[in-house]
Amino acid sequence: MDAPTDERILADYFAGGAGGGGGFEILVRRYSRELFQFVLRFTNSAAAAEDVVQEAFLQVHLSGHRFDPSRRFKPWLFTIAANKARDWLRGRTRRSEVPLDAKVGGEANGDESFADLLADDEAPLEEQFEAEEKRRLVQLVVAEMPDSLREALVLAYYHRFAYKEMAEVLDIPLGTVKSRLHAAVGHFARRYKAAVKGRSGPRDTLEEGPWQE
To answer: What is the pTM of this model?
Structure first.
């Protein structure tokens, strides 16, 4: 038997139907890890990510009875988390450090595509060693991006959201999603190329005037 959809689980949970009692826990198990990674990559704070994920699921619990079942649950959940992450960023000065557990990958040699650079790294430990500097450099560049560009980048390349779903999460028109993602890729490419040239001191390079928009 096929697993019930997120939308059916949520509807049953609020309707109090048979099997609905544990529906909320099912949704938490399905999405808590991915949601945490999304918020972590956006805020660069594990503590903030934990708080935001808890707050997002709390809001689902409090307002899920108003959820439109014709929509998809996942983009709605990410919209809630994105809004709460923005609130956290507005209330805090962005931290300069990049958490080591915010993994980004890529091959150690050769010309990688942008998607390669932002793919999760599952290589054996000995193969990861040579790529560690590159991963750190990617993390630094992504962390320094403007919030709107970084958010679009993370949704598209880490979480594989479709344009339509990104428009829903970001609350912007579909055409704006495409232009913003294009701008985000270009922004990353320029800064990554410059950072590679200044690899001996990437933090200093990232903080100099030419990096400012």
So the answer is: 0.63
